[in-house]
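Q: I have 283 residues here and want to know how they pack in 3D. Can you give me a structure?
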Amino acid sequence: MSRSLQALLDSLAKSPGLALLAVIADSAVADTPPGNDTLMAMRTLVSEGALNQLDFRQAWPLLERGLMGSRPSRLLSGLDSCGALPHLLPEVAALSGSYQMGADGEPVDIAAHLSRLLDLAATQNASLRVRVAALLCNLGKVDSPPQHLPTHYLHIDRCLPRIRSIALRFGLPQPIESFAILATQEMERVHRATRMRADALTALLERVDAFAEPERFNDLLTLCTCDWGAYPGQETSTYPKAALLRQAMAACQAVDATMDNGSQNHESRSLAVAAALHSCRQP
């Protein structure tokens, strides 16, 4: 009998659902998948209704533990393999079989992309809010109108209420929820950042409050860097947008330091960004 199966059996009397999640979370922490006997036992538990009365707020600490593991994709694969994912996160389960365009123009399975994104976040020792945002930021692409594919038109509008629903379900802390919403709204703008648009770069920095919340801004760039690297063929690429935005931020901070009474001026910042990036397009 495997140790994970024994641990599962030892915990069943307390809460079958939580015992199942604990084993899956441990697999993500240790980067070791459950054994076949354990997986069969978990499938039986799920089919017999072990998750039907689960308190989602009690389940969240175990999901958090798995997300913060060395291989968080094992959390998703474990939940999916035993049939628990649709019970806990039906929005994430629905991603399987949905596609988006990769950097090379080839279709990329969004569920597979999510797994790579989470594991890249782990290699970067990313914070919990980065990993939660990675889990949730593409949920609006599940039901994109077929006539718009491969473009996921208005997917952000469809994603935001799903993030709020999941946050309510699991009782997520407000800063975790708000960062997931911010990341969902801004990720594509970060990916499209270009030195030729100094005004837009400055507006992005101001919109995400990068000057007052530099740690959150760095987390946003970490998420975008991992999202970039999760696409096939870009695993070892350097993400150019992060360096671009950090350079733009430094230019803004330099001009802010010269302003009287700490006042801030969008136009002055934009001009400083244009000069720093040698942009031929003035803001």
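Q: Anything worth noting?
A: The chain has a mean pLDDT of 90. The two ends are 67 Å apart (CA to CA).
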